[in-house]
């Protein structure tokens, strides 16, 4: 998985009843666009994300 600053990320809920989270990648800490990513979620909190199979990254250019 590769991303750039400004891309969007969607994290699907892992358990029944938990919703998905969406946010904007505000910093790429890995080399060549690789994780981890610092993400600002739509609810305002920020967190370091190591994306797994429950994540999708969308280019800001789409």
Word description of this protein:
It is a single chain. The chain has 62 residues and is mainly beta. It is globular and about 35 Å long. It has one domain (8-58). The chain has strands at residues 8-11, 21-28, 37-41, 46-49, 55-58. The protein is built from no helices and five strands. A five-stranded antiparallel β-sheet has the order 4-3-2-1-5, with no helix packed on it. It starts with 7 loop residues before the first strand and ends with a strand. The mean pLDDT is 91.
Which properties best describe this structure?
40% strand, 62 residues, single chain, 5-stranded antiparallel beta sheet, DUF1918 domain-containing protein, globular, mainly beta, DUF1918, 0% helix
